[in-house]
Specification:
There is one protein chain. The protein is globular, with a radius of gyration of 26 Å. By secondary structure, the chain is an all-alpha fold. The chain is built from twelve helices and no strands. About 8% of the residues have low confidence. The longest helix is centred in the last third of the chain and has 34 residues.
Amino acid sequence: MGHPMPAVSAKSTPTFPPDVLKCSSQREQKKSFKEDKPFSFLHVFWEGLVAGGIAGVVVEAALYPIDTIKTRLQAAHGGGKIVLKGLYSGLAGNLAGVLPASAIFVGVYEPTKQKLLKTIPENLSAFAHLVNCRCCWRAASSLVRVPTEVVKQRMQTGQFASATDAVQLIVAKEGFKGLYAIAGIWILLLRDLPFDALQFCIYEQLRIGYKLAAQRDLNDPENAMIGAFSGAITGAITTPLDVIKTRLMVQGSANQYKGIFDCVRTVIREEGTPALFKGIGPRVLWIGIGGSIFFVILERTKQVVAQTHTRTEK
């Protein structure tokens, strides 16, 4: 004999036997558990760590000659000529800094972004990316980036033949603080914080808009196109900050510039305001192409790592 039919009236809700309610409750709990899996910070951090490290190294190695040309243009005073030899000078040492810095940045960016997007309304998602980029341990990664950036740029401008010689001579002449240049960390943060915030914000917002319009996930060429656009725009906007960073890092013990503001005033006084946009062509080309490569590798690597993790769990 089956369960009695629930009694229903216009003013009352259906009543069910206790065992029916118990089964229904268990099914709902299982369904809720499947749909709302707990957020794993470590898992998402690991995905971002691997993806960011690989993407950063590939882009840096592939486009390093363009970066070298950009650095030499920015470091040249007045109408100095640019030498096109030794375009890979300082690459190995720079990769040693790019790998951990890029890995840490993306590793923290991804889980932090996902957490923020769950608490912030969808129409304010751009704000989440702006806030997130300022919270992604950029200051911590700069402790690694600044010394490698100083060595890289001085090798790019022909001051040293090897990274080992560069480190030894810089420490001997300027002390350990020479590896951090004058205001090295501050100028790197001054350039990188707005750059990262703008680039990731533009990239993420364009992806969201494109996915809504296309009603599907983006493919690699589409990710590359959006990455190139966001990189090129952001690279052009932040060029003056990059010029100041280069001048401070390559000046060495000469100390022509006493700090960030003194560097800005001196460059404008001696070379004019257009000097703050030196190297904008190579910089836009480098970051535009780099953005397309970086975000494609980033998204693809994240997918591979996530699929590997899923198979491991099964």
